[in-house]
Amino acid sequence: MRIAVLAYGSQGDVRPFVALGVALRAAGHDVWIVTDTGFRPMVEAAGLGYQSVQGDVQALLKQRDGLSAVTGNPLRALRLMRRLTRELAPVWARDTLAACDGAEALVAGNAAAFMAAAIAGQRCLPLVQGWLQPIAPTGDFTSPLVPPLRLSGGAARLTHHLFRRLVWLAARTAAHELRDRIGLPRWPGATAAWAALETVPAFCAVSPTLVPRPADWRPTAAMTGFLFLDAAQEPDPALRAFVEAAEPPVYLGFGSMVARHPVQAAEACVAALRRLERRAVVATGWGGLDPAPLLAARDRGMQLHVTEAVPHTWLLPRVAACVHHGGAGTTAAAARAGVPSVVVPFLGDQFFWAARLLAAGAAPPPVPIRRLTAGRLETALAQALGNAAMRDRAAVLGQAIRSEGGMAGAVAVVEQAITRPDGALRRD
């Protein structure tokens, strides 16, 4: 079957769907990825078809008035996303429609779900949602996309519904634009928009070991396990030489996060590593860490390998501990590697993942970026490196995740949906 996979957002949002595309192709389907232009090299390197949606979300988020301005503030983050969708909505609607021409089924990530539902409904196509966070309402825990709260039952469920309304405010411009183009009536509000997705089969690409499936989820939502793109990742020769030269280093990187004070963040990391006398691989990413203090420390003799990005699949099993921002993808990679994490959350679901790793015994209490100091990082990293019980629990978690078969589960959800006689969405 010809399947279009719609995935918008950062690399952490897109990469799991590229992995799914590879698995669907191996199962005999004709698959292409619909995403923005910045991810074309990754998609084509995986051997998949590619259809572009104009607008480089990564470039927009890298701006200093982007992610750095909303760190720790979910309402500001939603306002940023609403601004981005208003700017890009006409282009996204036009390009997404064209990119789905010829598809016999759609798979959509979180950011594309409302547009995908409109297209699937208008064209009577099967649709499957893919969630990278456990976003369905539940009483077991609060929404992973709001600051952590100790609530359960109805109060916890309420946080999911409140966040759904906020998400709709950010997404409605693009959804309205697309529905206008194809002649469908606009959804009157958040309740109607989310109701349109309630009957759509979904897989949640999250480890059931780390987040057990809530018993109160709708039956058409499966918790399958993380999705990993295990393409051949040969490290840079200099990185390999550094890692293999002595004891396992620490990994430190904040991925696509953009810090308000990247120089101070880098200086705090340098000081903590120096006090612990640990060598480290440091990925400066989009702007979470300014390279200047790191390079200066290296030139003064500290054992640091400084680069912009690293191959997680190759590197993380070879490190002693992983200091990261708590994005879903990096959390999954660190947990699968079986090494302790020190999470420095910036925003959104990163606080949720930090809490989950803490509860699993695979991480010390998190150090939010706004409270990052050399002393706090030193304390947390010393615990991750020196606590034998934590290292054992991280290893057990890694073994469990490696045995879960998340990819097979996600493929099964998709294939069941596209072969059901009533699998296509009806026009509404």
Automatic annotation (TrEMBL):
Q: What SUPFAM superfamilies does its record include?
A: UDP-Glycosyltransferase/glycogen phosphorylase (SSF53756)
> Where in the numbering of this chain does the Glycosyltransferase family 28 N-terminal domain appear?
3-104
Q: Which Pfam families match?
A: EryCIII-like_C, Glyco_transf_28
Outline the extent of the Erythromycin biosynthesis protein CIII-like C-terminal domain.
306-399
- State a single Gene Ontology molecular function: UDP-glycosyltransferase activity
**InterPro entries hit by this protein:** EryCIII-like_C (IPR010610), Glycosyltransferase_28 (IPR050426), GlycoTrans_28_N (IPR004276), UDP_glucos_trans (IPR002213)
User: Which CDD domains did the record assign?
Assistant: GT1_Gtf-like
Superkingdom of the organism of origin? Bacteria
The membrane-spanning stretches of this chain are: none
| Record GO biological process | carbohydrate metabolic process; vancomycin biosynthetic process
PANTHER family tied to this protein: STEROL 3-BETA-GLUCOSYLTRANSFERASE, STEROL 3-BETA-GLUCOSYLTRANSFERASE UGT80A2
Name the chain's protein. Answer: Uncharacterized protein
